[in-house]
UniProtKB/TrEMBL annotation:
It comes from the Eukaryota. Keywords: Signal. It comes from Molossus molossus. Residues 1-21 form the signal peptide. CDD domains: TFP_LU_ECD_PATE1. This is Prostate and testis expressed 1. It holds the Pfam family UPAR_LY6. Residues 44-122 form the UPAR/Ly6 domain.
Amino acid sequence: MDKSLLLGLPMLLCCFRVLSGSFLGKDHSDRQTFVDPSHFSEIVQCRMCHLQFPGEKCSKGRGLCMATTEEACTTGKIFKKDGTPWLTFMGCLEHCANVDDMKWGPYLVKFRCCRSKDLCNELL
């Protein structure tokens, strides 16, 4: 496994957030969490796993996250150029965008977002 590319994964995820506009024009310094009971139906539960290799269980960051109205459940899959799966990651992401076959070094990245129902990103 190419450890330098694996270490670059957090940087790749940050690029998705920046490209999708999650940092544009926002001041996060005074961010507070508030759950309005009238919005419970808009919150979607998502599967979370930071690292999962093909044929294995989640190796890091296994659990659930709650996608608020500004977020979506997401699944990212990284493939070798020959189409062989290399790594999957799942979670909640603000300003999520679907991406097909983005080149990242010797890999291709596919990114999917959903809000259709709880745990919708398990099937992506």
